[in-house]
Amino acid sequence: MSASTPGIPGKRPFQSPAARPEPGSIWAMYKRMFFHVRSHWLLLTAAFFCIVSVSLLEFAVPQLTQYTIDDIIPHKRYNDLIWIGAGVLGAAILLGLFNFFSSLLMASVGQRAVYDIRNELYGHIQKLDIGFFDRNRTGDLMSRVTNDVNMLQQLVSNGMMSLITDWFTFIFVASYMLWINWQLTLVVLITFPLMIGTTHFFSKRMRAAFRKVQETVAEVSNHLQDTLSSIRLIKSFSNEEYESERFAVRSSSNMTANLNAVKTRSLFEPFIDLLLLVGLAAVLIVGAKQTMDGTMTLGTIVAFMAYLRLLQNPIRRFSRTINTIQQSAAAYERIVGILNTKPEVTDALDAVALTDVQGEVEFKNVSFAYHNEVPVLQQFNFKIEAGKITAIVGSSGAGKSTITHLMTRFYDPQEGVVTMDGKPLTRIKVKSLREHMGIVSQDIVLLNGTIRENIVYGRPDASDEEVEAASRAASAHDFIQSFPQGYDSQIGERGVKLSGGQKQRISIARAILKNPRLIILDEATSSLDTESEKSIQDALTNLLEGRTCLVIAHRLSTIQKADHIYVLDKGEIIESGTHDSLLAQQGRYSYLYELQFPQKVEPAQTENVEPAGHRSRRRY
To answer: Which of 271, 304, 339 is the last residue of a domain?
Structure first.
């Protein structure tokens, strides 16, 4: 047991949302990206060949210029001009081809890397526990999977290719320039430490600026997701203008963040250009003097100026590429922040799969809180007998749904243990545990698709006959058949084309089709009319024969046939028994029952008789 924290003795500390990781080095980002692209080594090899060829061709063109000025022109070798022109034209054509193929190949590698990273990120998010989703907003997660990953694609397809090309060009050209005139080359290179310092200074600021851009994009996505999913609520309150104003505020923040990033980048590029022009001026002065002194030929200084352009172009391009790199670095930090998040609910090393399930569930001294300061259950003991129908009643906030969350291991208790057939849930594989459970919640979740696709979600291989049988058991078959396309009818996003009762019956049919050993009905019939509720209850009575079932209900009419009923209040069991025995106790259950089914009292009796509801309130 971990150290105690406030709220519940001996509980694990509540974990806050994943903190943003400290900015890593650019090389760490490239290393991770290389891990994703190394499997495409054939494409990388071909792209590398094209990049080296581009560098060599760019290196060769100034040689033709120098040869023309120093040899062909002084000796008036007219016949060789055609070969010089052909050489320059051939080099231009080859440069175009190699640039085209290198861009295409690197874009292909980049798209494959994005495919791998996005799948890895989405797969990792799917494995995270429910607590993670409680702490993170949907729009932000969507932004990380889409916008942030797309930023990394630019890094691979554009940034990486540019860096590799420029690196080779710089090494080749700098080496040759040092060989032909090391003094003049040193004059150029003396400005490079200033460039490196300037780049380092602006890089950190650009990364922070682009991180803010990504965060504001996520805020825009959050607001968009929230409002579009709640459009009926917005329109019912005529709040369109209010939401538009709120959206404008977030868009304004994004615009400001982008302008700040552009401002930083716009300051950086002129500084680099200034230093490049200082180097050019130094070469012009020193080179012209050496030429006038006769220590350098005219062709050599022309070629040297061409090489200087080749040497400076990588620096100039890098000053623009650093924009992409820092955008990618900001996105990379946000992606790694998710990938480095570990789920709190995981399979233990010795976890086993459930076999021969009976369905007995027991809570032993369980304490649980969603937040440190708000305990929901404290030293809670509770048992669901195998093959029986167990019901839980109580007012909102009593902890009823929390019990189902712990049974399904959406969360683990901070203290105590929950068992299934005597085995602690932490020693049972999560997938195996949930495969034997069917849940019908008051929060109905339907996916955009057909009715059939939603019913077979837990059993994709189910036959049409099985789907229809489950639908009939859930009193859903008749209304499904009333749609023009029957089971193949589209239900819209979150089942928007269905009524509340229809959506609930679809979710019940989905649970019935799964045919689980343990069924949890969390307010499963709350949206149904009395007639539909009765038909479903009759169907469930037959279906649940010999199975374990937990029923959570506010409507006491749905649990009168339960084998055992527990009454919860503020996370504690205050009464238990059958429906009849609890009524006889004249306690909390009786009070709740009287509220829902008030008894008629003769007028003559009311004068000196205290209302039953009042008696219960005084007792509790």
So the answer is: 339
